[in-house]
Specification:
Elements (H helix, E strand, L loop, with lengths): L47 E2 L5 E7 L5 E5 L12 E6 L4 E6 L4 E6 L2 E10 L6 E4 L18 E4 L7 E3 L8 E8 L5 E5 L6 E6 L4 E7 L3 E6 L6 E6 L6 E4 L8 H21 L7 E2 L2 E2 L15 E7 L10 H4 L5 E9 L4 E4 L5 H11 L4 E2 L18 E5 L5 H14 L15 E6 L5 E4 L10 E9 L12 E3 L8 E3 L6 E5 L13 E3 L7 E10 L5
Parallel strand pairs: 1-5, 2-8, 11-17
Antiparallel strand pairs: 2-5, 3-4, 3-6, 6-7, 9-20, 10-29, 11-14, 12-13, 12-15, 15-16, 18-19, 20-21, 21-22, 22-30, 23-24, 24-25, 25-32, 26-31, 27-30, 27-32, 28-29, 28-31
């Protein structure tokens, strides 16, 4: 396929699950006796075969009861219990299968297949999966002490959710711009006047911008503002916009990658019914996330986590001011697409006050942008913000450890040198907002924000005060908004199971109409933080 003046690409995601193959078609090393086929009642010494091109995966049951293991062969991951039974895993024993990256499995109680206990996706960097044991290991070595994969269901819609029932925000979108000229270019949003600068792009580089259908952007060589290289009107069925100059093309390697991406997206879109929106590079699309992702099979599903990181109640030593009581955190599913959870009582009142106290004198005007375009102020984000490091105090250390328990991620990864940014604190006064945007973006590398954990530090003064977090493409397109209240949290995932950016994770901080709003958040990257 040959590049023209510009190219377009689109994308989205569900897994393509390989069908079970015959034993004769597999390498001898993966053969298992017929008696140990897909209906084992006890663990086999040989792996159960699920896929061609597999590797051996070990599943260990740490729970105090036997569980049944299923291969999820549905097209709607995590939403049904109609998978294929592979066998029973006794308590404290292991079970081996041979499977491939991207395949999904779940476990249930032996006597009740409807009681799904956990779901996991085979990741490229893990060959062992633990059921019922902590995936988080803190500095206090909580292994075996703080995690049980408890699941319950609440037959309700979360009471603080308000459905928008509006199509106004459906025009919001993420546009990916790629510079395939050999020049450094700058680009502008056409506001009908002089244009609003959006940043610069080097040859071969790309960036993602939150925008709306019908908006226009134009591109010029840096230093030559009189000549436009390209101009695009945003379209709902297009996500990639390429600036290409046949007289001055980028390096051939950049052109080759773009052509491969176009072919990949054609196939991906046919298979999944959505565009590929995230990074595509020399080795193809970015891989599936390597970090844990909580399953969400129905509204009202609740996962329960117990953390040993007790609440702080005063400004003093840990012995005097930090509770020794464990903290029970319930993750309640409030949206399936995007995958959104509410966690009540993540913070104590004192912890909330401490965050605000340390953030207030350090606030500055919030900015937008990325590593390629550079950070700049925009009227789409009018709040003030600051950053607080994990090492700032014993209290912030506790919050990072508690977050690691909640997310089931090794606490060592929640560090700027690994996977997490510092904790951001944001302040909104009357009229301030952050328009619809995605937390994930594409800037020429596979690293991406994967998890957003929002911590609400104030209550709404009244139901009309504004300041809610909205998900305009959630609730089957109706959209919804939520403000769970002081000390509570909202968790959502920015990537789908195959690594694509979740377009439905579009969200906004609605304008504050009365009073003020304080918010803190954790951003966790996959596979690692890219500063």
């Amino acid at each position: 396929m040959v590049l023209g003046v510009f190219l377009m690409i689109i994308g989205y995601t569900t897994y393509e699950i390989h069908q079970t193959t015959t034993l004769d078609s597999l390498p001898e090393a993966f053969h298992v006796p017929v008696a140990h086929s897909l209906r084992n009642s006890k663990p086999s010494k040989e792996p159960v075969i699920i896929s061609t091109d597999p590797r051996v995966i070990t599943i260990f049951n740490h729970l105090g009861f036997d569980i049944s293991l299923f291969f999820d062969n549905s097209n709607d991951i995590g939403t049904s219990n109609s998978g294929e039974l592979l066998g029973t895993i006794p308590s404290k024993e292991e079970f081996k299968i041979s499977a491939s990256n991207g395949q999904t499995f779940y476990v249930t109680e032996v006597d009740d297949y409807e009681k799904k206990k956990s779901m996991f996706v085979i990741r490229y960097n893990s060959d062992t999966y633990n059921i019922g044991s902590p995936l988080t290991i803190s500095a206090h070595d909580k292994l075996g002490k703080n995690m049980q994969l408890n699941v319950e269901y609440r037959n309700r819609t979360y009471p603080k959710i308000v459905f928008l029932n509006s199509n106004a925000e459906h025009n919001a979108m993420a546009a990916k711009f790629r510079n395939l000229s050999n020049k450094k270019i700058e680009f502008f949003y056409d506001d009908g006047r002089d244009g609003i600068p959006q940043g610069q792009l080097k040859s071969g580089h790309e960036t993602t911008t939150a925008t709306y259908v019908g908006h226009q952007f134009y591109f010029k060589e840096v230093g030559k503002k009189s000549v436009e290289l390209a101009r695009f009107v945003m379209k709902a069925d297009q996500s990639l916009y390429i600036i290409y100059d046949p007289q001055n093309p980028a390096e051939q390697s950049f052109l080759d990658i773009s052509n491969r991406e176009i072919d990949f997206n054609d196939e991906y879109s046919k298979r999944n019914g959505m565009m590929w929106r995230h990074f595509y590079g020399t080795n193809g699309p970015r891989p599936p996330p390597s970090l844990y992702q909580w399953p969400a099979s129905k509204i009202g599903q609740v996962h329960r986590v117990t953390s040993t990181e007790g609440y702080w109640s005063c400004d003093g030593s840990e012995v005097e001011c930090k509770s020794k009581e464990k903290v029970t955190l319930n993750l309640e599913v409030v949206s399936l697409a995007p995958r959104v959870f509410v966690i009540e009582n993540f913070l104590s009142d004192f912890e909330v006050d401490e965050i605000i106290k340390h953030a207030r004198p350090r606030l500055h005007h919030s900015s937008v942008g990325d590593v390629d375009t550079g950070a700049f102020e925009s009227d789409t984000r009018t709040s003030t913000n600051t950053w607080i490091a994990r090492s700032h105090s014993a209290i912030t250390e506790t919050l990072f450890l508690r977050a690691s328990d909640l997310l089931q991620i090794d606490e060592k990864l929640l560090d700027r040198h690994k996977n997490a940014e510092d904790m951001q604190v944001v302040h909104y006064t009357k009229g301030q907002r952050y328009d619809s945007h995605h937390d994930w973006g594409v800037s020429g590398y596979p690293e991406s924000r994967f998890i957003t954990l929002l911590l609400y530090l104030t209550d709404m003064p009244d139901e009309h005060a504004g300041g809610e977090t909205s998900f305009p493409k959630g609730a089957g397109g109706k959209g919804f908004k939520i403000h769970p209240g002081k000390g509570n949290a909202v968790l959502f995932y920015n990537l789908l199971e195959d690594g694509n950016g979740d377009d439905l994770a579009l969200h906004a901080a609605l304008p504050v109409k009365n009073g003020e709003k304080w918010l803190a958040n954790f951003w966790v990257w996959d596979p690692k933080f890219k500063d």
